Amino acid sequence: MPRRRLRRGDLACSVAVAVAAAAVAVAAVGAVGGGDGGADFDYRKLSGIIIPGFASTQLRAWSVLDCPYSPFDFNPLDSVWLDTAKLLSAVNCWLKCMLLDPYNQTDHPECKSRPDSGLSAITELDPGYITGPLSSVWKEWVKWLTFETALKLRGGPSLVFAHSMGNNVFRYFLEWLKLEIAPKHYIRWLDEHIHAYFAVGAPLLGSTEAVKAALSGATFGLPVSEGTARLMFNAFGSSLWLMPFSEYCKADNIYWKHFFEGKGGCHHRQQCDEMEYKSEYSGWPTNLVSIEVPTVRDTEAYPSIMDTTENITSSMECGKPTLLSFSAREVSDGTLFKTIKDWDPQSIGLIHQLEKYYQGDPVLNPLTPWERPPIKNVFCIYGLDSKTEVGYYFAPSGKPYPDNWIITDIIYEFEGSLLSRQNKIVTQFILSRSGNSVTGKPNNSSGDGTVSYNSLSWCKNWLGPKVNITRAPQAEHDGSDLQTKMNVDHHVGQGILPNMTRTPHVKYITYFEDAESIPGWRTAVWELDKANHRNIVRMPVLMRELWLEMWHDMHPDAKSKFVTKGTLLVMS
């Protein structure tokens, strides 16, 4: 067995370079294994495939665009995303190269941009700095050809590393593949082409930040106004891929519809189980959106909340605002946008995108919970216990689109509690700054600063009925602070808690591992204390654990199903 001993230099490498060099690292492991006198293994056949997150790859211009009153123009192959100089000096010109038509997803008539290729496309723009897909071109990023090429060039399966929204892109690929090849060949193809799948920071039930981006804009630290950020977000058809949705609602089985009704033209009918109507928040900590509307114009604008609108008083109709709240289901099925379209006509574009590209997609409605991918080795990795936004209060601003809504309050989850923007703690009830009464059911932990805990930890449902749990410090340790519980009972849908102690000021990794429930398959969930969503891919501790896991998988003397979590020493 390889010991958990690494040189400090190994921990400092960046994620993109480390993953792209996975084959080299595995080749080195193979040399170690051969030196131990084991069987003759050719570990150099493995390759690594990276699927980055939102806006984590470069865009380059494919056309000429003259920018008047600016020293900058766009020429073919010029950088568009992200060229900060052009963004600051010619923002309107730059937006022509960035925005897509919200209805048909075509380029601006004056400028066309496309993703860059090669490793530099992600290493020169911080991988994962912003989370989610940039535009519909992401669906072209991962094609069957990518895996076929890797197999032909290296002769072995791939290690798939996906960050944030890249996981949803990979999910779409798997569902597309299922419809493209014969059923009996589907699992065999996956076994031959994919050795392991590492899902890092996956928003498995979406992220509430997408709601903020759609209604008021989210700049993610860029030097643009929130209104400009909102224009960009709402122009990209795949931005809605980040929208939160209910864990209790599923789409009908497109696999059987594919055979009995043919490809295309099928609308995904959403089926919700009784828990959707028994639970208050669709499995989330609280209502995701509460929005003030100035008056009621037409009850047709409220198709799924008729009972609410029928009782609105005449005083509200005369101008007194009324507060409407929306659950995750009502966000993902379009009820929110249909409700506010009288005051925000641009919402019609979002309704169109939901109906065409999600509910009407011929392969998958991605705004539905997903089951464990049928891949031999699946690792779900995320950070936890950071302050994370889980709900918003909006009100009209009196300004035109895109600045017509303002956020009046934000609800956060933080280490098992809910907080308002003023940091007032709630377990079941709070009063926010604006006087809004907020009820909620906090998660046992909080998210990674971008995605809430219930969304990140959905992959715990992929674990079997018996789970081994280990908690170890992230830093080097002598094993004295190692905690292990074997064969912990796990009931799907009820969560699984480590029930272990913590030493103050020590950051831990908690491993949930299952190698028994499905013969030949392994499933693991890694929770990293205080790991930030956008920076987790650059954390040395993550690189160390990925490297150790690959080493373990390829080592001829490995006896355990997972890497042992004993002494970890880091040599200087």
Topology, pairings included?
Blueprint: E1 5-7, H1 8-11, H2 15-20, H3 22-35, E2 47-51, E3 59-61, E4 79-81, H4 84-89, H5 91-98, E5 113-115, H6 120-123, H7 144-154, E6 158-163, H8 166-180, H9 183-193, E7 194-200, H10 209-215, H11 226-235, E8 249-251, H12 254-261, E9 270-272, H13 274-278, E10 289-293, H14 306-309, H15 314-317, E11 322-326, H16 328-332, H17 335-340, H18 347-358, E12 377-384, E13 388-396, E14 405-414, E15 417-419, E16 425-426, E17 429-431, E18 437-439, H19 453-456, E19 466-473, E20 483-489, E21 508-514, E22 522-529, H20 540-554, E23 569-571
Parallel strand pairs: 1-23, 2-6, 6-7, 7-12, 10-13, 12-22
Antiparallel strand pairs: 3-4, 3-5, 8-9, 10-11, 13-14, 14-15, 15-16, 17-18, 19-20, 19-21, 21-22
Helix pairs in contact: 3-20
From the structure above, extract its key features.
23 strands; 28% helix; six-stranded mixed β-sheet; 572 residues; alpha/beta; eight-stranded mixed β-sheet; globular; 20% strand
Nearest-integer average pLDDT: 78
Q: How many distinct helices?
A: 20
Cα distance, first to last residue? 22 Å
**Tertiary shape:** globular
Give, in spatial order, the strands making up the sheet with the most strands: 2-6-7-12-22-21-19-20
- Uncertain spans: 1-41, 126-145, 298-317, 426-433
Helix content: 25-40%
Radius of gyration: 24 Å
Characterize the largest beta sheet: strand count, sense, and whether it forms a barrel. 8 strands, mixed
Q: Percent of residues in beta strands?
A: 15-25%
What structural class do helix, strand and pairing data support? Answer: alpha/beta
- How many β-strands, per DSSP? 23
GO molecular function: phosphatidate-sterol O-acyltransferase activity; phosphatidylcholine-sterol O-acyltransferase activity; phosphatidylethanolamine-sterol O-acyltransferase activity
GO biological process, one term: leaf senescence
Pfam family, one: LCAT
InterPro entries: AB_hydrolase_fold, LACT/PDAT_acylTrfase
